[in-house]
Every structure is written in structure tokens, then in C-alpha cells.
Design goal:
- With 82 residues, this protein is mainly α.
- The protein has a domain of 32 residues.
């Protein structure tokens, strides 16, 4: 099958199946392009790979400022009890 035939068939799919196809293709491309950069799989990344690719894209979107939580809690307690 040529890519033109594949494209034609994909365009005749219902919209939800086309989105699933797009998602699967993007996940495949991301995996292939990120594969050389990965060294050894760690135990922390294995559960992430089981997530839906849309969920995986949300990881790292929110960056928390580096903050010493102990100092923040101490400041909170000092303010509360002073």
C-alpha cells in the first residue's frame, strides 16, 4: 500500500479514529526521536510509559519554583504562633 492510499483511507475514518491514529503516530515518532537520548530505563520512567500519550505530554508542564519546604513551614509556624 502506498502512502497516498493510506492517507486516503485514513481520511475516510471517523474523526475519533483519526485522532487516535494521530495520537499513535505522534507517540511512535516521539519514541523513535527520543530513543537515542535515553540511557537506561529507570524505575521512575517505567510507570510513566504506561500512561496515555496525552497524559505524558502534560508531565513537566507546571514547573514549581525551587523552594526549601522546611523553611517555608518554619516561617508559617512562626507567623502563626507569634
Amino acid at each position: 500500500m502506498t502512502w497516498q492510499e493510506l492517507q486516503s483511507q485514513a481520511l475516510h475514518l471517523p474523526i475519533d479514529q483519526r485522532w487516535y491514529l494521530v495520537q499513535a503516530l505522534l507517540a511512535s515518532i516521539q519514541q523513535e526521536t527520543h530513543q537515542p537520548q535515553m540511557t537506561a530505563p529507570s524505575s521512575k520512567t517505567e510507570p510513566i510509559s504506561n500512561l496515555d500519550s496525552w497524559t505524558q505530554r502534560l508531565i513537566g508542564v507546571i514547573q514549581l519554583p525551587p523552594e526549601d519546604n522546611t523553611n517555608s513551614y518554619v516561617d508559617y509556624l512562626e507567623e502563626k504562633y507569634s
